[in-house]
Amino acid sequence: MPSELACCYLGMELESPVLVGSCPLTMELETVRQLVDAGAGAIVLPSILQEQILYSRLLKNSPEHAIERSGYQPQQDRFNGGTEKYLQTIETLRANESVPIIASMDGIDDGDWIGYAKEIEASGANALEFNWHPAIFSPSESAEEIEERVCVIVRHLCASVSIPVAVKLSQRFTNLASMARKLQIAGADGVVLFSHLPQWDVSVDRGHWTIRWELSPINSLGLILEGIVRTRASEMDLQIAASGGVRSAEDAIKTMIAGADVVMVTSEVYREGPEVIRNIVQGISKFLDTGPYPSLADFLHARPVVKLGPKHLMRLSFVDPHTRSEPYFDPTPVVTSDTGDAFGHKHT
């Protein structure tokens, strides 16, 4: 792999800025081998869940209440192997692959379950990603209380391990720059923007809402770019990983111009297989070879600085494009008998 693509993420030296994001595929040794051969700079394991960790601890003392008090369900182990296999997988991957292995934990409460991070570190993980969704337990709970809840968890998590910790956030924060500041003060080394969210729908027949997981939509990069730029406005020294909507080398380059240090590719691996990693890595290399930047590090150093301007100018960045007289861009045009097909061919 070209040395020009070397980069740093969470203090780790990577040979490539393209990482495989958290997903069950990274639990399989042969799949990981193919992803690394294709050029992945690091591998992120699927999240081990708070419920699984609580269940494994409750089994030792009060097994009759373990499921009820933990929220554990057996299919969770099919997702990530369970608490014991998870640690074994870290050891196996570290023994067989040269790239960093990043573990992941997912939870919503502070508590003893965070101690599992020590076992993750002891098993050889190079870094830890904490995946947190802003679950709302009470309509009277304020935004400040919700943000403080995640900061408390991150503070305890970072204090329990010596490996670097990144926090994977959702887009549901009013002020991402402020949240980034709080997380760095709590001890986080980086943020992953953003966590994947389930798709909500309403069943007309059942008269109730439904929730399902989907791959990232094809045209979802814009929200990721916005989040990265807004987070950089914090002027903090947090490293940023772009996650969600990266499908090509051009997408990866866009996120890095916006401020990402690395990109995580997940949904596209499910769609195209390991070869998509190779294509993105080769595309970034070609971009550097044909441009003025000798290396990825030089390119990242030259990207534009994000500065918050006067209120009226910041407001103008929204009002101006919204009120221009040009027709609104339609990313998914509908073919009609008047306009022809999506390629402009007239109907006969």
From TrEMBL:
Segments of this protein annotated with the region Disordered: 329-348
Sections of the chain in a coiled coil: none
Domain of life per record: Bacteria
Pathway the protein takes part in: Pyrimidine metabolism; UMP biosynthesis via de novo pathway
Gene Ontology biological-process annotations: 'de novo' pyrimidine nucleobase biosynthetic process; 'de novo' UMP biosynthetic process
Cofactor(s) in the UniProt record: FMN
Gene3D superfamilies tied to this protein: Aldolase class I (3.20.20.70)
Molecular function GO terms recorded: dihydroorotate dehydrogenase activity
Entry keyword set: Flavoprotein, FMN, Oxidoreductase, Pyrimidine biosynthesis
GO cellular component terms, semicolon-separated: cytoplasm
InterPro entries: Aldolase_TIM (IPR013785), DHO_dehydrogenase (IPR050074), Dihydroorotate_DH_1_2 (IPR012135), Dihydroorotate_DH_cat (IPR005720)
Keyword Oxidoreductase on entry: yes
Ranges of residues in domain Dihydroorotate dehydrogenase catalytic: 234-288
PANTHER family (alphabetical): DIHYDROOROTATE DEHYDROGENASE (QUINONE), MITOCHONDRIAL-RELATED, SLL0744 PROTEIN
Protein name according to UniProt: Dihydroorotate dehydrogenase 2
Source species of the chain: Rhodopirellula maiorica SM1
